[in-house]
UniProtKB/TrEMBL annotation:
Transferase recorded as keyword: yes
Domain Aminotransferase class V, chain residue ranges per copy: 24-348
Assigned keywords, A-Z: Aminotransferase, Transferase
Source organism (scientific name): Metaplanococcus flavidus
Keyword Signal found: no
Pfam families noted in UniProt: Aminotran_5
The protein's name: Aminotransferase class V-fold PLP-dependent enzyme
Single Gene Ontology MF annotation: transaminase activity
Entries under InterPro entries matching the protein: Aminotrans_V_dom, PyrdxlP-dep_Trfase, PyrdxlP-dep_Trfase_major, PyrdxlP-dep_Trfase_small
Length: 377
C-alpha cells in the first residue's frame, strides 16, 4: 500500500488518540485549534464575566472566514443555527405568485423537502420532487422538471447518502434559463471541495460546520447574492438583522443592506468561536489540497471495498463523487455500533455505511474499517 503524505499533523486532532474517525459526513474530528477556541469562550466567561465586544468579533471572524471559503462578500452571509432554519427563512421570505412553485431533488436532505412542504400546506405552493436514478441525477432530469413556474430550485452539492457530486454550474444554467433561483445545500461539500458561488452561478447557499468543516453543530451560514437579498423582507427576523442592532428601535425596521438582514437574534456565540477557528484551519490547508488528498482516499476506499466483495452505492467516476463512500450493509445501524466498539467511527444511513475520511486519515484507517466491516457482516 502506497503511503500518502498527510496534509496535516495527526497530533493536531485529540480525538484520534483513541478513535479512527471516518465520519466526516456526520461529525469530523475537530483540530486542537477548535478545542482551544471553545476554551477561549469558556475562559472569557470565567475571567471577564461579560465580553460582548470580543464575542461579536469572533462571530464576525467566522462570517469573514466563511465568505472567503465560498468567495463572496461577508455582507452576503447571515448566521443562523441550522440548515433547516436557514432554508425555512429563505422559503418563507420569498413571494410565490399564482402557479409558482419549488423544485426539490429526491437526493436532497429531508429537511429541504419538509420545509418546502410546509409552504405547500400553509399557502398551497406547489412542490415538485425531481426523481433520482440510483441516488444520482442527470441533466435531463433537471431539464424536464424546471420550468418558468419554478420560483426556487433546491439541490444538494453533494448527496448526504452516497457522496454523489453535482455539476452546479450546469444546474444553474438551466435554472437561469427559467428565471428560477438556485439554492444549493453545501453541507456535505463545504471544506472538502472548492466552492466559488459567483463562478458556479449560485443564488443561495447553506452550510453548517459539523461535517467536512471540522466544527461543531449549532451554527449555519446562509449566503444570498446581495442583488437578491437586498430586495427581500425576511420572514424570520430580529434585532441582529437590522443595520444597527444597537439602535434599540422598537417601532421601526431598518434592515441591513444585504444578506446580513437574515440574521435573527443574539448569534450562536460559542459555536462561532469554534467555526472561526475551524474555517481558518481549513483555509490554511487549502481546499484544493484537501480535495486532492480526499480523492485519493476515496478511490482507495472503492477499490478495497470491491476487493473484499462489498457492494458500493457511490459513483465510480471521481468527477461525480465527493469524499464519502457508501457501502451497502445489512443492518447498517448495528454495523455502526459494532465498529464503534472497536474504536472506529463510521456513519450509517438506512441500508448503507458511509466511510467519510478527512485529511487526518490514512489508507490504513480505511483498510482497518473495511476489514472489520467485512468480518462483522
Ligand atoms: C446535506 C445536508 N443538509 C442538511 C442537513 C441537516 O442540517 P440541519 O440539522 O443543520 O438542519 C444535513 C445533516 O446531516 C445534511 O447532510
Amino acid at each position: 500500500m502506497k503511503m500518502m503524505k498527510l496534509p496535516v499533523e495527526r497530533s493536531d486532532f485529540p480525538t484520534l488518540q483513541n478513535k479512527i474517525m471516518l465520519s466526516s459526513c456526520s461529525q469530523s474530528a475537530p483540530p486542537q485549534a477548535v478545542i482551544d477556541a471553545l476554551d477561549a469562550y469558556k475562559y472569557s466567561l470565567i475571567e471577564s464575566g461579560m465580553e460582548w465586544g470580543e464575542w461579536i468579533e469572533h462571530v464576525e471572524g467566522a462570517r469573514k472566514n466563511f465568505a472567503e471559503l465560498i468567495s463572496c462578500d461577508p455582507e452576503e452571509v447571515a448566521i443562523l443555527s441550522s440548515v433547516s432554519d436557514a432554508v425555512s427563512s429563505v422559503v418563507n421570505s420569498l413571494d410565490f405568485k399564482d402557479d409558482e412553485g419549488i423544485c426539490v431533488t429526491e437526493i436532497d436532505f429531508p429537511c429541504i423537502g419538509q420545509v418546502s412542504l410546509s409552504k405547500k400546506l400553509k399557502q398551497g405552493v406547489p412542490v415538485t420532487f425531481i426523481p433520482h436514478q440510483n441516488h444520482m441525477m442527470k441533466k435531463e432530469d433537471y431539464e424536464a422538471a424546471i420550468n418558468e413556474n419554478t420560483k426556487l430550485t433546491c439541490v444538494p452539492h453533494i448527496s448526504y447518502y452516497n457522496g454523489f457530486k453535482q455539476d452546479i454550474k450546469m444546474i444553474s444554467d438551466i435554472a437561469k434559463r427559467n428565471d428560477s433561483l438556485l439554492l444549493v445545500d453545501a453541507y456535505q461539500s463545504a471544506g472538502s471541495v472548492p466552492i466559488n458561488v459567483k463562478e458556479m452561478g449560485v443564488d443561495i447557499l447553506v452550510a453548517g460546520l459539523q461535517k467536512y468543516l471540522m466544527g461543531i453543530p449549532g451554527i449555519t451560514f446562509l449566503y444570498i447574492k446581495k442583488e437578491i437579498s437586498a430586495e427581500m423582507i425576511p420572514a424570520v427576523t430580529g434585532w441582529f438583522g437590522q443595520s444597527n442592532p444597537f439602535a434599540f428601535d422598537l417601532k421601526s425596521t431598518d434592515y441591513a443592506d444585504s444578506t446580513r438582514r437574515f440574521n435573527t437574534g443574539t448569534p450562536p456565540i460559542v459555536n462561532a468561536y469554534a467555526a472561526e477557528a475551524a474555517l481558518k484551519y481549513i483555509l490554511n490547508i487549502g481546499v484544493d489540497n484537501i480535495q486532492a488528498y480526499l480523492q485519493e482516499l476515496s478511490s482507495y476506499t472503492i477499490e478495497y471495498a470491491e476487493q473484499l466483495g462489498m457492494k458500493v452505492a457511490s459513483p465510480r467516476n471521481s468527477a461525480e463523487k465527493g469524499a464519502t463512500t457508501a457501502i451497502y450493509v445489512e443492518h447498517a445501524d448495528k454495523a455502526e455500533t459494532k465498529l464503534k466498539e472497536e474504536g472506529i467511527v463510521v456513519s450509517a444511513r438506512k441500508d448503507i455505511i458511509r466511510i467519510a475520511p478527512h485529511v487526518y486519515n490514512t489508507k490504513q484507517d480505511i483498510k482497518r474499517a473495511l476489514d472489520h466491516l467485512k468480518e462483522w457482516t
